[in-house]
Design a protein that fits this description.
Layout lengths: L10 E6 L5 H9 L3 H8 L4 E5 H18 L17 H19 L3 H4 L1 E6 L7 H8 L2 H4 L2 E7 L2 H11 L15 H8 L4 H7 L4 E3 L2 E3 L1 E5 L4 H4 L1 H20 L1
Helix pairs in contact: 4-6
């Protein structure tokens, strides 16, 4: 069930390659006045769940453990996860955080949208593996916006946004070219889209989705061009969501 009478999404998932523009879109929405945001983007008040702060905590903890002379527990010396299942753990953490939100506020979706954000590459199971671990409670209220950029554009923007003084920043973190190549060069999104043209099945629910084209990097330039394209895409997605 969705709060169709309130004209806003319950759960909106933003997925893409790294640096494709997910966090920039969220920042743009956050800085749009509430009434305009609700009318144009079908998002009112909202909260975010992003798995980047979760995994960054692992890097920080391992650095502290190394400094203390203890074994690292999450990543190796090069910052790679020790276990493939850690990618699944991040999605289960998102499920857990969502459960706590609606536990503490049973009317959460009467006045809030949840925006979820993550990236996945084929080397660690892709988006399909992530969807396999997403909870039914999230999926039954979910719509997906995929931000589409090429591998080359993802790599370019990853380099451009990186600020070594703020590696933990949502908008300024980055990966080395070697990590980008290993983790994210290949994506399973096109396979998923081809196999599920009407909606991606997640936990028994056909979840509607649309693609936001961003090869021209509107999310960096912002302004009216971004507002128009985002509004048009989210309005079409909302019609699918409520149909």
């Amino acid at each position: 069930m969705t709060k169709q009478n309130q004209n806003t999404f319950d759960n909106l998932l933003l997925i893409a390659r790294p640096a494709a523009g997910k966090s920039e879109i969220i920042d743009h929405i956050k800085n749009t006045p509430l009434a305009e945001r609700r009318e144009k983007y079908h998002i009112g008040e909202f909260q975010e769940l992003d798995d980047f702060p979760m995994l960054w905590t692992w890097f920080e903890e391992d650095a502290i453990l190394t400094d203390l002379g203890h074994p690292r527990i999450h990543t190796d010396e090069n910052g790679h996860f020790l276990h493939l299942y850690q990618w699944d753990l991040l999605i289960r953490r998102i499920n857990l955080e969502y459960d706590k939100l609606v536990r503490d506020d049973p009317d959460f979706h009467q006045h809030q949208t949840l925006i979820i954000e993550f990236s996945r590459g084929s080397s660690h199971g892709g988006f399909q593996r992530a969807f396999d671990h997403l909870s039914q409670r999230i999926a039954q209220r979910l719509a997906i916006l995929y931000i589409d950029v090429s591998w080359e554009e993802s790599r370019r923007k990853n380099r451009a946004r990186y600020n070594p003084e703020r590696p933990d920043s949502i908008l300024e973190h980055g990966l080395s070219d070697q990590k980008m190549e290993a983790l994210y060069r290949h994506s399973d999104w096109e396979e998923l889209q081809s196999a599920h043209p009407e909606g991606i099945e997640i936990q028994g629910h056909a979840v509607p989705y649309l693609v936001f084209e961003n090869e021209d990097d509107l999310t960096s330039t912002g302004g009216e061009s971004l507002s128009h394209r985002l509004g048009e895409t989210l309005s079409r997605l909302f019609r699918l969501y409520t149909s």
